[in-house]
Amino acid sequence: MTKSIMIGVDLAKNVFQLHAASLAGQVQFRKKLSRRAFFKFMAEQPPAVVVMEACGSAHYWAREMIRLGHEVKLIAPHYVKPFVKRQKNDAADAEAIVIAAQRPEMRFVEPKSAEQQSRAILFRARERLVHQRTELVNALRACLYEYGHVVAQGVRQIKRIEAIVEEPHSELPELMREECRDLLDQIAALTTRIKAKTAKVQAVSAERDVARRLQTMPGVGPLTALAIEAFAPPMENFRCGRDFAAWLGLVPRQFSSGGKERLGRISKAGQADIRKLLIIGAMSRLNWLGRKSIPESSWLARMTARKPRMLVAIALANKMARTIWAMLTKDEDYRDPAQAVAA
Q1: How many C-alpha atoms does 110 have within 13 Å on its Cβ side?
Q2: Of 331, 319, 298, the residue nearest 241 (C-alpha)
Q3: Total Cβ atoms within 10 A of residue 67
Q4: How many CA within 13 A on the CB side of residue 233?
Q5: Long-range contact list for 337-340, CB < 8 A, 24+ apart?
Q6: Is 157 found in the same domain as 249?
Q7: Which parts of the chain fold into alpha helices (H)?
Q8: Confidence band of 278 (pLDDT split at 50, 70, 90)
Q9: Tally of CA atoms within 13 A in the half-sphere of 4 that contains its CB
Q10: Is residue 185 one of the residues assigned to a domain?
């Protein structure tokens, strides 16, 4: 059935602002509805194109609107902002959402499934625990620094910190030792929880065929596979592997004009979690142990010989992103290019 109107929805916790217009741009109605009234109103509406900003609860409401028979489009908030007229309010936001969505060149966000959001929440929960532990470790290092003890960064220094705290001749007041022991207990508790979350990530990744396929690539582990499943849209949305790499922010930023190309550093304009994990995975292939598996005549070996390691890691992460797109669109496991050439 052809949809005749487009309804822009400015989402909120309790009050929803609606702006409806025909596909030609004529305003049909404007409404302000409560949460319950919004769902009832949309259930009574004929099928329409419903557009919302990709913000909190947007994916939930997208699934609900699809269930009611509507076509749903999610749009990034920074694409809506240029279309807001003068004053910033809910009605102006809803109108701007419709105007932005009617642009033929506009890009939209793919709605996430409930399972995909669950995996994203698991990923975020582990990241949050890691950040909390890092904060406590740095607080502990700062406390010791006040008494002349300099400790290097990283959770690996916990054993050394424990030795300083328990050392009788470290010249630490007893009250200071008690506070440090309390911080050490909190760090130990967070480490236990992080290990439990990591085990859950590995179990979830083992259940999915897509995650198993992704882990056949060197430098991709359960955490990276989970992040790709949780945050990346279907690979069919990208025309080629370079588009996926650009979505991750792994391509150079352009400052081109007058037919002359000027390329800068990577844009970092896309999904930060996947980009970070791909770069970490690439760095693991460039350390002293990973370099043993790099063929001498490969492009990676040639770049490693003449370029800084971080630059090579980003180039390798870009190549990994393109390979991931090919693996998922073709439903194939990773094939080592060096072995394919030798065969």
Answers
A1: 16
A2: 319
A3: 9
A4: 17
A5: 337/298, 338/295, 338/298
A6: no
A7: 35-44, 58-67, 77-80, 90-101, 114-145, 158-166, 174-207, 209-214, 222-231, 241-247, 272-286, 299-306, 309-330, 337-342
A8: very high
A9: 3
A10: yes
Q: Evaluate if residue 119 carries a pLDDT over 90.
A: yes
Query: How far is residue 182's CA from residue 179's CA, in Å, rounded to a whole number?
Result: 5
Residue corresponding to tokens 């532990």:
133
Domain boundary among 207, 238, 273: 207
Question: In the predicted model, is pLDDT for residue 154 greater than 60?
Answer: yes
Phi and psi, residue 108, nearest 5°: -125, 160
Mean of pLDDT values over 92-105:
94
What average pLDDT does the structure give for the chain?
A: 90
Which pair of tokens denotes residue 65?
């609107």
What is the model's pTM? Answer: 0.85
Residue 120 inside a domain? The answer is yes
Q: Are 48 and 76 in contact (CB under 8 A)?
A: no
199 and 152 assigned to the same domain: yes
The total of structural domains in the chain comes to 3
Range 90-110 average pLDDT: 93
Domain boundary (173, 207, 241) is at 207
Which residues, at least 6 apart from 150, have a Cβ–Cβ distance to it below 8 Å?
Answer: 144
pLDDT tier at 290 (50, 70, 90 boundaries)? low
How many whole angstroms separate alpha carbon 59 and alpha carbon 16? 15
pLDDT at 336 over 90: no
pLDDT band at 269 (very low <50, low <70, confident <90, very high): confident
| Cβ–Cβ under 8 Å, residues 153 and 168 | no
CB 111 within 8 A of CB 129: no
Mean per-residue pLDDT for 290-319? 84
Mean pLDDT in residue range 224-252: 92
Q: Which domain holds residue 24?
A: 5-101
H/E stretch holding 15 reads: strand 15-22
d(CA 246, CA 236): 15
